Amino acid sequence: MGKNIRHMKGFVLSAITACSMSTASFAQEIITNEQPVQPPWQVCNETSFVLNIAIAGVPEGQTGKPISVWGWQILRPGRCQVVEVEKGTPRFAYAQSARLHQGGIREWKGRFEYCVARNDFTAKTDMSCELQNMTSAKFLQIVPTESRTAFVEPEDFGRYAETAGLQRLLRDNNYDIKRIDGRSGKRTTKTMVKFLKDHELEKSISVDAQFDVLEKYALETQKNIGVQFCNKSTAKIWTALAFKNNTGYEARGWWPIEKGSCIHPFVENLKGRDVHYYVRQEAANVASGATDLIIRVPSEKAKSFCIGPSKFSSLHHEFCQDRGYVEAKFMPVAADKTGVKITLTDADFSGAVVSGLRQ
Predict the structure, then answer these.
(1) Whole domain around residue 192: which residue ranges?
(2) 63 in the same domain as 185
(3) Fewest CB within 10 angstroms: 27, 219, 257, 331, which?
(4) What CA–CA distances, in Å, run from 94 to 122, 129, 246, 263, 277?
(5) Closest alpha carbon to 242 in 265, 259, 271
């Protein structure tokens, strides 16, 4: 989902120093103009997420050279980092949340495309992303004279971002944080003390040490939450998920899974969540008239959602055909565990009425 970036324009103080000198015979005024000094460019994280930052620009000391792209710089909530680029030259920034957070990756982006890689990278701007074995991301253009760029959320945590970040990481570790607001109240303090005690750590450790252990165990927690699919059938399968959020149900697809492979498309705590899934098994020989198979769903468990013929995200689930979708029966996921692993075999599928979906 797209996020906001707040631009806070730096200012330059220009001083005109007036010196007066006088003698018995004459008086003379000397005015000295000092050249404005542009402060270094700072990128700040005012969100509740640990961010990975990528920059496109001309590195400091490389005047006259083309723009290059580099990343990732890790930036914790409430922190700022100086980015060394040539003063007055074009610059762009892109951020995505670290993979240790539940709920998938969030992006803070603009409209200028540059190449990025999954791990630390440096990319050229005169060569296609494909040739560099990279993908593209949309960067936001930054005003060259801007001295401070802040990535923000709608809640606008500002100086409370560090506490909001600790709250989010506690939630990512499946601790009971009902609201991420950046306010260090009794509930947040007690929850942090419980987390530290559960991991046999002193409650007096520094904030940086708290971030270290929270991030470490958040990654471990992800292995056992959400929905994982494994394909043990004899053909490629395509999966879709429907889940309830604050505004209602959302259905998404498709995630393909080759034979013998597993994927982990939904990385959130399932306890108390209303989540459903749908799966199609690809026809081996469409030319001969074979059709896809679909997952068997007992009628007493089935819930209908709208699905699309290609990659889709549907927020409404009535009158599917009127909106270009197809109605499908989804299977519920158990809501009494933090995570489930669903293994699918040929026995889980039956004939499909509609083929040609899941592209």
Answers:
(1) 163-222
(2) no
(3) 27
(4) 14, 16, 27, 27, 33
(5) 265
Tens digit of pLDDT for each residue in 264-283?
A: 999 999 998 999 999 999 98
Contacts of 1 (CB under 8 A, 6+ apart): 106, 107
Do both 139 and 72 map to the same domain? yes
Residues 213 and 301 in one domain: no
Task: Identify whether residues 304 and 255 lie together within a single domain.
Answer: yes
Number of domains making up the chain:
3
Give the domain-ending residue among 119, 152, 185. 152
Residues 88-134 have pLDDT tens digits of 999 999 999 999 999 989 999 999 999 999 999 999 999 999 999 99
3 state DSSP class of 323: helix
Q: Convert the pLDDT of each residue in 16-67 to its tens digit.
A: 233 333 433 334 444 455 656 778 999 999 999 999 999 999 999 998 899 9
**Partners of residue 56 on adjacent β-strands:** 69, 92
* Band (138; pLDDT cuts 50, 70, 90): very high
